[in-house]
Amino acid sequence: MRLILCYEKKGPMAFIAHLDFQQLWWRIFRLAGMRLEMTKGYNPRPRMRFALPLATGFQGERELLEVFLEEDEEEVVERLNNVMPRGLAVLAATPVADPFPKITALVDAVAYRVELPASLPGLDCVVQVAGDYLLAADQEGSELTLLLKVDNQRSVRPDTIAAACFPQQDPAGFAITRTGIYARKNEKNSPLPTGMLLLD
Amino acid sequence: MWNKLKFILPYVEKPARYVGNEINSVVKVQGEVELRFALAFPDVYEIGFSYMGFHILYEIINDIPWAQAERVFAPWPDMEAKMREHNLPLYGLETKTPLDTFDIIGFTLQYELGYTNILNMLDLAGLSPYAPERSDFPLVLAGGPGAMNPEPLADFIDAFVLGEGEEIILEIVETVKEARKGGLGKGDTLAKLAAIPGIYVPKFYSPAYDANGVYRGLKPLGDFPPLKKRIVNDFGSHPLPRKLVVPLVQPVHDRVSIEICRGCARGCRFCQAGMLYRPVRERPRGQLAEQGMQLLQNTGSSEVSLSSLSSADYSQIEELVKDLIASEGTSVSLPSLRVDSFSVELARLTKAVRKTGLTLAPEAGSQRLRDVINKNVSEADIFNAARKAFAMGWDSLKLYFMLGLPSETDEDIVGIIDLVRGLERLYRETRGKKGRLKITVAVSTFVPKPHTPFQWEALLERQEVERRQRLLLDNLRPPLYKVQTSDWEESKLEAMLARGDRRLGRAIFLAWQKGCRFDAWSEHFRPRLWEEAFDEAGIDVGASTGEIPLAAVLPWDHIDIGVSKDYLLGELAKAKAAEVTRDCTFADCSRCGVCGAFAVKPLKRGGKAPCD
């Protein structure tokens, strides 16, 4: 059974590094009594793909994870949420079937909310640093929102942008939340899994 | 606290160490909690998780409706710097409340090189490291093997807990809760605790020294029960923990440990654990299989490690391993194998070993020296184990040896070299020219430890240790062999802290003040600062690491572990004569005294006897 999960990663959970986070998911599935398919080869691992890794320290409001379960399972969202530590919650689970593309191939853009130490005089520095990756930027008070293009899993980091605008502050000090993962619609990925946002 | 923390954490390495919130961690409604206990581990987060006692106490305390146990670990230096910069006090991981608001802080003393971290953690909590300077709660307790020579930490710890914690912990929390309810101060509460057998409150004992500064023993300043370690009444029926907190920073191995037996009677004369954890007791196989599986289910792990000081000695080890691996997707690991072919057979059953290679601990290179230390392993045992391992397809072997053992000569070192080369020849005979053998020879330096037959022996001097290490390094060269040696300075500090008396506290304080912490981590170990600290405290390092006269009063003589001093002296005499003593669970009683001291029936094992 192939599923795309939409989940949030908040508070303390934001500080779990990506590799540890991956292992945490394996454990959560075992605790929930669902078996993940294993990869073939010398060192089998559970089959699982993150849409786009989230940097340690960033929160995520609508993160996406693709998993392959050995059997068809029911009440997946509830069962996972029952064993999940605080700060982590599954919001939706969408079953998909071949030839639906890999979740990693779907990602065309991501949106972030960055809490800045003060409001910016203008968005020029953002434009300068983000270059072609910048699809949209907006500011309300000291809160900066960014929509950034993702090209083959590559993009520009929001903390890099913020740091360039506030050179006197250490880039680690900005509170950053990824608010969504976007795809462009085409015939192969339609309809989009719940939680994935449409880029138009 | 969280509002401050979340702005600090992005700057530190592995921030998940500091957030709590793990699967199976327990956070209670604070209004219902009458007693808060901080279980403190004086090393970094990931290290603390591998000590089972920590998990056991966490569960026992949190099973009490009115008590909350939280965990606290030593912050890594980068986090310490940030905490100091932002005036953030050390806090309990569960509720993120400052440590100084707890009723009890209890440190576990697993190894000596964590001692400066204890002082540092108290300081980070805004508390004085010195016990007399802390007039109020929290009480600072310490337990674990290090508490069996508590004197070096006597200046800093309010009360030491001796022996196994499962039962006494209940008496402690009950006593402290009642004391708090009755409005007792710290001093009166300590007096109540001192009345519990197994609790040692150092301030109620005064040390005496003669005119030459030689330690003459402790004088009790009141009427207290004897300072005898506690053991659990019926280990066999004591349940395993139901749940374990699962770390958010993943350790190297994702596994749960189940303690299949406690204690070891093999009688290696250098081994402190072998003396401290007697008598030998086993849990029934049925209980282990059932509760072990339950534990796997509750933690979401897939590997279970059968922990004990000598797993292969467990009466029904083969059956137990088969019980556990019968369940699909479960693997088993055996952390402490004997050097014999039975153990290798056993390891074959467990696929976990396949990846890591086989580890054997002959400890010494010649039969004479193995007899001196009472490591009852023959050359034939070693070769049989290796032959079997090679035949089964293992290509890597790790061998543990000790250097600087009493009576060791160059012949014994040559014995290690010959043994290792002999194993290589054996490999070629078994596997032909094709295989790619790798032998790791891990050589530690013998450090005399309290409560062992070798407690009076000397730590070998630096030059000599390094010369012997060189002998091995020169004769066992890469890429076929890899020799790992240990830093003599670390061994020296370990010896100092292990055997010190109360006067050592000053040196520990000075070393901490100069910046020593995480002494067990070579990247943070600062021998020069320790040197200065010993100097300023007026401690003669040479004399302290040397041989101790048999008639001397020892700084740990007041702590009764049930094993008699006569037995230790007898074992030392037998060592000098290279005579062995057999494991009493397979042979006759060795009269160590522990069964009598605790009125327990000696465990007798049938089945496969160890290799002697």
Give the tags.
heterodimer; A: 200 residues; alpha+beta; Alpha-Beta Plaits; 9-stranded mixed beta sheet; 5 helices; 9 strands; globular; B: 612 residues; alpha/beta; Rossmann fold; pyruvate-formate lyase- activating enzyme; 2 domains; 6-stranded mixed beta sheet; 22 helices
Describe the structure.
- The complex is a heterodimer of chains A (200) and B (612).
- In chain A, helix 4 (124-130) packs across helix 5.
- Chain A folds into two domains: 2-104, 2-Layer Sandwich (Alpha-Beta Plaits); 109-183, 2-Layer Sandwich (Alpha-Beta Plaits), CATH 3.30.70.
- Chain A has five helices and nine strands; from the N terminus they run E-H-E-E-H-E-H-E-H-E-E-H-E-E.
- In chain A, strands 1, 2, 3, 4, 5, 6, 7, 8 and 9 form a nine-stranded mixed sheet that branches.
- Chain A is α+β, with helices and mostly antiparallel strands and 200 residues long.
- The mean pLDDT of chain B is 94.
- Chain B is of the alpha/beta class.
- In chain B, helix 5 (115-124) crosses helix 18 and helix 6 runs antiparallel to helix 7.
- Chain B folds into two domains: 2-220, 3-Layer(aba) Sandwich (Rossmann fold), CATH 3.40.50; 235-503 and 539-597, tm_1862 like domain (pyruvate-formate lyase- activating enzyme), CATH 3.80.30.20.
- The longest helix of chain B has 22 residues, at 410-431.
- Chain B is built from 22 helices and 17 strands.
- In chain B, helix 15 links the parallel strand 15 and strand 16 (438-445).
- At the A-B interface, helix 1 of A face helix 1 and helix 9 of B.
